[in-house]
Task: structure prediction
Amino acid sequence: MFSGYIFDVEGTLVDSVPQNLSSLQEALGQAGFDIPYATPQLYSGLDGDETLQIIAPDLAASQRKQILRAHAKIL
Result:
């Protein structure tokens, strides 16, 4: 008999998109960007860095990394 754990990372078994998007929205808010939930939702299939390049194109790579670290902590 086998016993183990099922760990779902990318939303295969559980839809985690809403939590991912709201945590990105919150991280952006902490960085001074007031954006509606619908904005990151438009780019939900993209990598987080790619999304930030579209949403806030004037951010430096280091600023994007800070936001993505905050996003990961919130998520």
